[in-house]
Amino acid sequence: MTPTDSVLLVDDDRFLADSTAHWLAELGYAVEVATTFADAQTRFDNHPFDVVLTDLRLGDAEGDGLDLIRQLRRRQPDAGSLLITGYATPETVVEAARAGASDVLCKPWRDEELLEAIRRVIRQRSVVAENERLRQQLDSRFGRERILSQAPRMQKVFRMIDRVADARASVLITGENGTGKSLVARAIHQRSQRRDGPFIEVACGALPDTLLESELFGHVAGAFTGAVSDRLGKFDLAQGGTLFLDEIGTASPALQVKLLRVLQELRFEPLGGIHTRTVDTRVLLATNEDLATAVASGRFRQDLYYRINVVEIALPPLRERPADIVPLIDHFLAEIATTGGRHTEGFDDQALTVLQRYSWPGNIRQLENVVERAVLLGSGPRLTVEDLPTELVRETLEGVSAGQGLTPQNAAVGGATQESGHPDHRLRGALAEPERQIILHALREHHWNRSLTAERLGINRTTLYKKMKRLGLNDPQFRYNPASR
Fold first, then answer.
1. Which string of DSSP letters, residue by residue, matches 417-442?
2. Burial class (CB in 10 A: 0-12, 13-18, 19+), 422
3. Cβ atoms of 6 and 49 closer than 8 Å
């Protein structure tokens, strides 16, 4: 019990109501008493209660205890309620449950019995409140709002998520690894009427075919060596919710046949079983493969492809969404600060330039890992090029040297160092400082061994010497004074 636990006691027997209220107040509850239907309505209209205890018969023409509980459910849906009666019948208990009562208590009661009933109602309210809090966290973590993007193609994805959330049609989510297919599937589930049901994810490519069939459809005892008892599959466990099948392109021909049937009929037999099971499960699927090509080559059934590809949500890779990189970085930094307690001032301009020019083959998942690594290993309040993986820095430098992978947004990052005049001169000025930082990082990493540095950067030593001279890195102070820039 906490000081905020408040109780409204409604009974037309004033003596009983006052004595019970006095006893509850001694236990620390904040208690109010009402002796009529109208008085009770006025009180819970003006004050929120944790628990309302009401007698069934109030001797009031305006309504009885069941009517009062129905009113309470409309006006204070979070409050718990106890119906007290000396005339309990099975029909009364059923009607009380339908009206919204948390419990029914019979007169005469024992003090311990009443106290335990009140505590039980309060615990139930706490569970409901906690479930709502967790649901809000799920919405925050997996809802559509967490998919950060300003790209026009992603805005189209957002609209499709809203449109298909409650549809029964199959949805195929396509895109490269790390583009957020699982996040989109969870967002669809969270925005659907099945959100209170389970969301179960199966990575089809992670299991051998025989184990995958058992994982999806379950098995009966003796179906295979080691199957000592019956086991429910993911289709059963996702009953009333959503089943997300990732990497569906890896399914074997035999499994594809069984999947086609369950998607069409929602019926299947467990592995080794003879009894047909029926489920109410929404199925979402994802792949990083081109299934149309797999159909043409005979690796994927054409009828299954048409069955699952009713609605396709295609996620663009991160390299086609360069404007999203900085907002995603900011989001990951804020998330790390919240969950890990590690705060930084973010990346400096040179590091951001490198991050924006990188091709991100691992997409958003790779970006998140790089940001987390930089925060964990960074030594200063500001994250720099030295806090980024060497491979990432090297590839970016190679792109700069070849004049590839540049966009107007990238070229503008180093605006403070841009020169006036011809556009080529401005671009060269913007590139100079990031290139200088990349080479300086590699030199320090290899203790100024120029041969190893050139090899690591993928350029020859002569090119490295020329770049060091042009960028002012041949000054001995950089070698013997690591703090110098």
1. GPPSSSHHHHHHHHHHHHHHHHHHHH
2. exposed
3. yes
Task: With beta carbons less than 8 A apart as the criterion, state whether 324 and 183 touch.
Answer: no
Classify 199 as helix, strand or coil: strand
C-alpha radius of gyration, the chain, whole number: 33
Is residue 482 over pLDDT 70? no
Q: What's the full length of the chain, in residues?
A: 485
Q: What is the torsion angle, in degrees rounded to the nearest 10, for the CA atoms of residue 68, residue 69, residue 72 and residue 74?
A: -110
- Residue 157 scores a pLDDT above 60: yes
Q: Which residues contact 406 (CB under 8 A, 6 or more apart)?
A: 357, 399, 400, 427
User: 60 with 38: CB under 8 angstroms?
Assistant: yes
Q: b/e for 326-361, b at 16 or more Cβ within 10 A?
A: bebbeebbeebeeeeeeebebbeebbbbbbbbbebe
Question: Can you give the pLDDT at residue 55?
Answer: 86
Cα separation, 82 vs 104, whole angstroms: 6
- Whole-angstrom Cα distance, residue 442 to residue 111? 77
How confident is the model at residue 414, as a pLDDT? 36
Q: Name every residue whose Cβ is closer than 8 Å to that of residue 136 and which is 6 or more positions away in sequence.
A: none
Cα–Cα dist 287/291, whole Å? 8
pLDDT band at 200 (very low <50, low <70, confident <90, very high): very high
Tokens coding 217? 């459809």
Mean pLDDT of 88-117: 81
Instruction: Give me the pLDDT at residue 314, please.
Output: 93
User: What letter represents residue 388's amino acid?
Assistant: L
Give the separation between CA 385 and CA 332, rounded to whole angstroms. Answer: 18
Instruction: Write the DSSP symbol of residue 188.
Output: H
3-state secondary structure at position 98 = helix
DSSP summary character for residue 207: S
Pair 319, 360: CB distance under 8 Å: yes
Q: What domains does the chain contain, in order, with CATH numbers?
A: 6-136 (3.40.50.2300), 144-316 (3.40.50.300), 320-480 (1.10.8.60)
Q: What pLDDT does 211 receive?
A: 84
Is the full-model pTM beyond 0.85?
A: no
108 cis-preceded (ω within 30 degrees of 0) = yes
Element (H, E) at 14: helix 14-26
SS3 of 34, please? Answer: strand
Residue 291 tokens read as 């299934």
In whole angstroms, what is the distance from residue 204 CA to residue 375 CA? 33
SS3 state at 428: helix
Predicted local distance difference test score (pLDDT) of residue 405: 41
Cis peptide preceding 381, ω within 30 of 0: no
- Residues 382 and 48: their CA atoms lie apart, in Å, by 49
The DSSP 8-state label assigned to residue 473 in this structure reads T
Q: Cβ distance 88 to 104 under 8 Å? A: yes
How high is the pLDDT of residue 445?
A: 81
